[in-house]
Structures are given as C-alpha cells and as structure tokens.
Amino acid sequence: MSDDWQPPSDDFGIKEERAPWGRYLVYLILLGAVAAGGIWLASQVVITDRLDREPLIDIAQGETPDPDAPPMGADEEAWVRALEIDTLQGYLDYLAEFPQGKFADKAQEQINAYDNRAWASAEQRNTIAGYEDYLSDWDDGLHADKARERIAQMKAARDAAAEDAAERAAQEQADWDQAARENTVASYQTYLGKHPTGPNAADARNRIATLQANAADTAAWQAADNAGTADAYQQYLTSFPQGAYVAQAIAAIERLRPSVGRVFQDCDVCPALTVLPSGSDTLGALDTDAAARPNEKPARPVNLAASFAMGVKEVTFAEYDACVAAGGCNRRPDDAGWGRGSRPVINVAFADAQAYTAWLSQETGFRYSLPSEAQWEYAARAGADDLYPGGSTAALCAFANGASAETSVAWANAACTDPGVGRTLPVGTLSANALGLRDMVGNVAEWTLDCNTLNLRDAPVDGSPDSRGSCGQRAVRGGSWFSGPDDLRYSARMMLRRGDRNDFTGFRVVRRIDG
Length: 515
Description:
Blueprint: H1 21-60, H2 74-85, H3 88-97, H4 104-125, H5 128-137, H6 144-182, H7 185-194, H8 201-227, H9 230-239, H10 246-256, E1 263-264, E2 273-276, E3 279-283, E4 300-304, E5 308-311, H11 317-326, H12 350-364, E6 368-369, H13 373-381, H14 393-396, E7 445-452, E8 470-477, E9 493-497, E10 505-506, E11 510-512
Parallel strand pairs: 7-10
Antiparallel strand pairs: 1-2, 2-5, 3-4, 5-11, 6-11, 7-8, 8-9
C-alpha cells in the first residue's frame, strides 16, 4: 500500500478540522447539575432557621413580610416590638410579659449590656454620687453589691478624712491661740513650722513682720532716749516717721529744743521760760551815752550762736519757796513785809541763786543757770538800740518799776507814778518787751554770772560769762524799784559782793537749749 493513501472523505475531498463545542456543552451541563445540587443542600440546612427568623427580621427592619409565611405568635410579636423600640424599657417590658419566652435570653443580654454601660459610667465617675446613681437605676443590677461596697468604703474614707481634718483643725487652732497669747516672733515661727499653709499662716507672717518692725522701732527709740539729745530724737523720727514713739520723740525735741518764742515750764513749780533766738548785737554803753560809766565800756559786738531760754519773769517767792520745801535751797528769805507769792524773791545772795538753779537742773534734767551779762543785755534790749525800754524816761514808766515821783530820792523819775511806792510789784505787772520778757529793768536788780571788771575791754564776745577780774563780786543788772533812769539803762552795771542780801536784788534764770 502506498504511503500517500488517505481514507475516503465525506466532503468529497475537501479537508476541514472540527471545533470541540460538544465537549464544552457537556461540561456546562455537568457544572449546572453540581450547582443545583449544592443550592438544594444548603437550602435544606438553613431553611428551618430562615423560616423562624426571616419574618421577624424583616418586620423589625420595616420590611413587608412574606405573605406566604406562617403568622407570628404573641411572643414573637412582643420581641419584634422590643427590637423596634430598642430601649432598656422595651426589653424589660418583653421579659415582664414573657419571662420564659423564646427570646428571653436575648432580651436579658440586651438588659445586661445597659447594666454594664451604667456600671462603666459609675466607675468612670468613681464617686459616691456616681455609684448611688447606678443603684437608683440598677438596685438589683449585675454590679449592685460592688456598688454598695464601694459606697461604704468611700463613705468610711470620707468620714475618716473629715474626722482627721477636724482633729487637724482643732490642733491648728490650739497652736494659733498659743502663738497669739505669747505674741512673739518665736511663737509665730513655731506655728508656721507646724502649719506652713494653715488658715492663720498669712496672719502669722504679718505679725512676725510687725513684731520685727516694732522691735527695730523700740530699739531705735531706746537708743534715742538713752542719748537724750534733740539730735538723737530727730534721728529716730527720720528713721521711723510712722513709729510707735513719734509723739514722744516730738515732745522730747520740743522740751530739749523748744521753738523760738514758745513759753513753757519744765515742771509745775518751775519758772515759765521763753525761747530767745540766736543772734548778734552791740552790747555795752556807746560813747554817745552821757550817763555811761567806765565799767560799761567799750561797747562790743557779741554773737550768741545758740538760742537759749530765759525766765519770762523774775523768780518769785512761790517758786523759790518750792526749792526750800524740797530741800534744794537752804534758807527761807525774808520778804520785808511786802508779801510773798508772786512778788520777786529778795534777800537772796549769789550762792542762794546758784543753789536754786542747781535744784532746777536736778529736778528737770535740763541745764539751768544764772544768765551771763551778755545774755541778760541781749534779752533786755530785744533788738532795741535805745538807752532804756521805751526810748524815753516817760515811756520807761510802762516797762520798769523804779523810783517815781512819789519817792523823795533825788534820782527819781518824775515822769512816773509808782503803784508800788517804794517796794516791789508782783512780777509781770508791767509791759513785756519785744521778746515777751517782763521786768527786765526795775522791780529787782538781777544777779548774773560775770565777775567784777573795771571795763568791758576783752570781755567775751560769744555770750559766755566774764570770769576775769574780782569774782568775789558779781555783776547785777537792770536796776530796781529804788533806781532812777540812769540805773535803768540797758547797759547799767552794778557790782555786789557774792554774799550780799538785800531787798532790791533778786534773779531770773536761763536754760540751755540742747542740740
């Protein structure tokens, strides 16, 4: 047989390859049969559950149920209502109606979920009120016992804390009362050590600051008072302008350094004084004074650099008798039958006047003395450059109690009528000079500290007393009730022995103004 041989063809010699469609069709049929079998099997497994749930689910979701499905019972309808409402009360209502219902377990699960959410909220708040709010809604809830336990614990802790706070408050108050009673820096510091943030801590710190300031104030005052000078008191005022002792410091300064022109007394029985200003003047008799004596010249400029206080009036019997009564003066002077009281003391020697000023100094703590001649004349002139007060013999009558027309002495001032007629007048009866001083001339002559000198050449020009010459004799100034105009001049000087006592000589005092 030849190799080129082919079987006979049905297409009469036309050669064609067939497509495999038949096989594909067979495969599709087989797959369809398998799928149909699977669907049937699945439907057999779930059909019963679907029949139970599908109508309920569809109804709960608002879908129209299958009209061919069997009708629902009361239990199922109640559960559908609970699902539709989907609230705690809805599930509670279902259980109340169907405690053994088909969906009781599911309803309880939903209720428990609400319970757990309420408990979680209570735990997050973690307060008595939070747990009480839980119990108000879930008295028999899953966590009711735990809520009650926590409430009990928290109340116990709260009560313990309150009791502890009360004890601490009582102790703090007791410690504060103790500190306040002691009222010292140390007591308040002790309180603060125990209660640094206590309710009285701010007050304690303020009181410490006040006490420390007061201590510094008191120390400064004591230092000033111990020094006892006007400058020391002024330093206190500068350092503590609002200090506790400001009034005392001002009063002390006024005592030590009274203002010019002020009239004051250092004690009840002390003479009234007035403060004279510092200043300069020409003292002694000028060459133009025809009545001048050699011991009154030459006139010289005198500068009193410091102010001083001088008795407004001559020392009276009442004032001097107080010294006698106190034992500061040894003898009670005679009043010549003219009366005591406010009349100028007479019949006193230089030593008697010195004893009186020493007693005043001891009684008051200030430095009293007799005036120097320069102080006396400076005060008597009060800035005037006339021969005597008033500038004329007629005007002199208003200022000086001297020998007047009623007396028989040749040197009497015929221009004056003497109300005393040959005796002293109560001090201050006549007019004051420009510095407020009375009886600087007339009434009684006045002891000074200066010794007897033949003239004023080389006499001190600073206001201090002259210790040259014969100090067994002292200068008296101002003339007396027995003096005529020549002896009532500002510059007139008369010398007496230190032990002389007579009815026409007395004294007045000066007091140093301390710095």
